[in-house]
């Protein structure tokens, strides 16, 4: 069950919140630049592998449309003008580059099933796909992993490369109202109310998979955080604005190089 934001008054004064826009075009430009930056960050983390991986953001005006990276373009080179606007029928409404069929099959169904989801991220990251082969959920063995405690799902119905909408529907159904899912024998997928949140959940989930795999290598019994403490920690780390805020230092780092802002 996804963790809601705590009341605004609980946040420190001058806490940076996601910006609000009165103009749709201004918001769209912002989202496309933020999405481009998220791809650059994923590229720096080494989450790209061949042509696999995609992040999407729902268009602020046309809610049944989303922006996505084109098929076969490096995460490190994507510009706002390269992004594709796709509707839930699979039509490329804006953009001239090819569409990744798997990206459409998965993301269209998640966006359709979850009106609250603004952004979704999926990549074939090394530790995520390695952990997915275990066919189990993350254990609450670290503070960071507690952000996903009782708030992620296991999709254990792998049937090959996702090319059909039916597979995307099954993934969306398994995800339910959680912030993330482990796609068995495949990798990770995360969602959020902002691009920042979805990207951060993916990054910290990948690191949590790495931590658990390395802890398992010791051969020692894993010491899990108890249920009550894990739930308390999740409430403090796992809400949407926490995900948004955790992403900001990475956004600041990538923003130093302003080349990605260019059209």
From TrEMBL:
InterPro entries, A to Z: Aldolase-II_Adducin_sf, Aldolase_II/adducin_N, Aldolase_II/adducin_N_sf
MF GO annotations: actin filament binding
Residue intervals of the Class II aldolase/adducin N-terminal domain: 33-213
A Pfam family it matches: Aldolase_II
Record-level GO cellular component terms: cytoskeleton
Family: Belongs to the aldolase class II family.
NCBIfam families reported for this sequence: PRK06208.1
UniProt protein name: Class II aldolase/adducin family protein
Source organism of this protein record: Aquimarina mytili
């Amino acid at each position: 069950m996804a963790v809601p934001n705590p009341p605004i008054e609980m946040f420190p004064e001058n806490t940076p919140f996601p910006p609000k826009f009165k103009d749709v075009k201004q918001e769209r430009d912002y989202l496309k630049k933020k999405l481009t930056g998220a791809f650059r960050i994923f590229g720096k983390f080494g989450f790209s592998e061949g042509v696999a991986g995609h992040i999407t953001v729902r268009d602020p005006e046309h809610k049944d449309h989303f922006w996505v990276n084109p098929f076969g373009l490096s995460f490190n080179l994507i510009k706002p003008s390269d992004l594709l606007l796709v509707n839930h029928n699979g039509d490329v409404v804006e953009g001239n580059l090819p569409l990744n069929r798997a990206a459409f099959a998965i993301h269209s169904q998640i966006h359709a099933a979850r009106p609250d989801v603004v952004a979704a991220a999926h990549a074939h990251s090394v530790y995520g796909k390695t952990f997915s082969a275990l066919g189990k959920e993350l254990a609450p063995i670290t503070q960071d992993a507690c952000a996903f405690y009782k708030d992620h799902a296991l999709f254990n119905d792998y049937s090959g490369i996702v090319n059909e909408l039916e597979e995307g529907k099954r993934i969306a159904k398994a995800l339910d109202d959680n912030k993330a899912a482990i796609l068995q024998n495949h990798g990770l997928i995360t969602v959020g109310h902002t691009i920042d949140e979805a990207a951060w959940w993916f990054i910290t989930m990948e690191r949590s998979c790495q931590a658990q795999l390395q802890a398992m290598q010791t051969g020692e019994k894993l010491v899990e955080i108890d249920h009550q403490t894990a739930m308390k920690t999740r409430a403090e780390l796992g809400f949407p604005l926490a995900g948004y805020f955790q992403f900001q230092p990475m956004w600041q780092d990538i923003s130093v190089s302003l080349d990605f802002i260019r059209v």
